[in-house]
UniProtKB/TrEMBL annotation:
Domain of life per record: Bacteria
Pfam families registered for this protein in UniProt: OsmC
Organism of origin: Zwartia hollandica
InterPro entries registered for this protein in UniProt: KH_dom-like_a/b (IPR015946), OsmC/Ohr_fam (IPR003718), OsmC/Ohrsf (IPR036102)
Entries under Gene3D superfamilies matching the protein: 3.30.300.20
Name of the featured protein: OsmC family protein
Amino acid sequence: MEVNIDWGGPQGMLFVAKTGTGHIAAMDGAPEGGGHNLAPRPMELLLVGTGGCTAYDVVLILKRGRHAITGCSVKLQAERAEVDPKVFTKIHFVFTVTGDNLPRAAVERAIALSHEKYCSASAMLAHTAAITWSAEIVQSGAAAQPAA
């Protein structure tokens, strides 16, 4: 895996990343750090990647289990250390999984498997952050089942 990152120049803190698969992502800093707030912060993108990794796993595990999943979203809330390096110290994932007759046990198992076995990003972050999660299941055409 390879990523190339180029600085946008001396007028700010904009960086453009190009992935080995040919995709582009921009990153910028806060105005107080010399940035212009034109793109997500690098640490935000780290959370984006982690959330994407776990959501991908959850959908794949449920589809392979032949569950009728029709939607999946995850919201991450994170806290960082106050001193450098300002690593993540707590990350909470809130999954909302939608489908037809989705068993809570299957959804929770998929989330647990992602965090415990499959998601490389959350496995790395677990070395510095306490990772927790909750799940909301929305049955298609029915009201949500709140987390137990």
